[in-house]
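Pipeline run #58 for the internal structure catalog. This entry was flagged by the ingest filter as a single-chain record with no existing model, so it goes straight to prediction. Upstream metadata was stripped on purpose; only the residue string is passed forward. Reviewer on rotation: M.T. Logging verbosity set to normal.
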Amino acid sequence: MQAAPTPLPSNRLYRSTDPGALDFTTTDEMAQLPGLIHQPRAREAIGFGTCISQPGFNIFAVGDTAGRVRESTRLMLDEAALGQPAPPDWVYVYNFADPQRPKALSLPSGRAPALQKAVHDLIEELKAALPAVFESEDYQKQRGAAEQAIQAKGQAAFASLSEKAQAKNIAVVRTPTGFTLAPLRDGKIVPPADFNAWSREEQVAVQEAVESLEKELEETLRGMSRLEKEQRDAVLALQRETARFTMERPMALVKATFADLPGVSAHLDEITSNLLENVQLFTARQEAASDPVAIMRLDGALERFEVNVMVTLADHGPDSPVIEELNPTLGNLVGRIEYVQLQGALVTNFRFIKAGALHRANGGTLLLDARALLSEPYSWAALKRALTRREIVIEDVTRFVGLTTTVSLEPDPIPLSVKVVLFGDRSLYYMLSGLDPDLLRHFKVLADFDDELTRDVESEMMLARMIGGMAKQEGLKPLSRDAVARVIEHAARIADDQDRLTLRVELIRDLLTEVSHWAGVAGRKIAERTDVEHAIRQQIQRASRVRDLGQSMILRRIALVDTAGAQVGQVNGLSVMSLGGYMFGKPSRITCSVRPGAGRIIDIEREVELGGPLHSKGVLILSGYLTGRYGQEMPLSLNASLVFEQSYGGVDGDSASSTELYALLSALAGLPLRQDIAVTGSVNQHGVVQAIGGVNDKIEGYFDICAARGLTGTQGVMIPASNVQHLMLRADVIEACAIGKFSIWPIETIDQGIALLTSREVGEQGPDGTYPAGTVNRAVVDRLEKFTKARKEAGGDDGARDTRSDARSRDTTRGGTPA
């Protein structure tokens, strides 16, 4: 026979932190804890991932919540980046050979702004210097001399032609449409009317003279066109030579500054050549000084000589950058090309190329929220393409969706050398790894953050230092030693374990913020334990409306839960609800009815699709228990139905399986169960009661009902013995247990539990295979035999189906679909 369970002593219900073991008086005295506590696995993974440079060894950091993982990962990445060399700068410049394909140039870290400024200052200087030099007296003299020399050639040619013509009494006449030849008499041009009055012989002579001169006139005019072109070329050559001389000194200074960069030097040479080819832009700008539109157009043409800085030292600091992109749209990730509207059309140029997170993190580390990344169309695919190509290609989302046909740029790809770190919760990582095989190809390093750490004196002191560091960082009031001890105890409560401490630092930080507030309200400069207690109560108070409503329904007898008396086939079960991060226990009545039948245990929650798969699994285990204990010598000829009374939402989890088994055994044996005891715990097919979650919330939920109705001293909760180590109960529950007003019984087996609930011996099977009279097992066997006999008398199948097989076939037929 197993020993009857005894209530737990009050010192087993809570593990206190000894303030005397904390070596400080207030948190102001403690040195701040560097980094995070107890993350050796994640720290090692991130250290490995940041050191290895082979492609594919990017990092995916996971934990219970993305927020905590993000903060922890960022701290570790910042530590790893210290002392690492800063990455190079990148700029885009105009491609004079192919304007639609801007060129990317790499410069040593921090030098891109200097290049941008140097080129900009050069253009601004030339805007003033070139027009000034072209207006100078020396230039005008040189230009006048060149023009006069060429004009003199033209005048000489016309003079020679005129002399020949005059010798033949022919004049060379300029008209609005060009030049023509006309007859002369007495040094004057003969009008057409007079010419027509001449004799035939005179007219023919003139016409012959004109014809002989026309060829020479044409040749002279052609020579004049050549001279005009020669004049233009001479002026342009003079302009270029003057511009070259003017540009030589400032351009030499720019080239000298960047002489160590061949790519930059080559581009500066191209700028020089193109400036000399387009020197008229500067003169035209001077001539259009009174026309703002023309000035704007000419300045736009001069923008081709500027430099577009994509990323530089100022974007990330002196070390290898850790860049976090909070909104990883396609444009924010790989960069974008912007447009401006000009006279109804969208136009762009290389200066409208904008950097993305990959550009800013290039040479360092990029930190991304995995959920945010996957939520943005095209971003995940674009990131994988960039990691595969190892280069950044700016992609326009409008091309993917066909929203525009505007001609765009195709900038040079920029080589990519980046460590990408994704962070998120574990479920997202496991889901993505199962759906996308590329995840493990690109993110080979998993950094899995621990959610808890083992509780001992050393870890409590580490957590105390972390609490002190948080208070300093957030500008909160310091905490006393007793207050810190209470926060540590609350960390164990969050972990639902006496021997573990939570590492969910965001919850601790939120609590410390509230503690500081309430200490200030109380007029204290140092937060005390009472402030921590008050802050915890206020957190519960703000979130407990639904809990209070449910308890009110029970107390008003709208939801039926008894806390006294005894009933057959009826027991109080305990479940946990979680709403908005707040968990609370909810008592529920579970009932069972039995009758002769073919060996079916009907889960009503399952039948109406309110029960989840884990709950249905727990019910199926009951069939295995019954068959193993009572069905070895005879078929089980019963039908049973189980239900959570007044349950109108989904039910899942197997933590009520032992409770349902107690109700089933009570219904079979006809023995009433105590209603002043609530039950939680799962069970296996051998009747061993197994641990469940939320044990503290479940106990407190039932205690609140009992306390509201009045504690009798007989009330309590049965929990799995393996859950005793998880108890971190409220002070009022501990106090009630200490004075014998409430009890918590640790249960190891179903036999212990049913004996406590029925106040009957369970009964051991004798050598003859029977159980002693008056025991629970004897009552169950007797009832099952009656069912078998009744089934035979009713003409039922003697070989009734086994309950396990029947339950299994039902589950398969129903498809196992959870509510």
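catalog note: The first strand starts at residue 59 and ends at 63.
catalog note: The CA atoms of residues 166 and 533 lie 123 Å apart.
status: ready for reviewer M.T.
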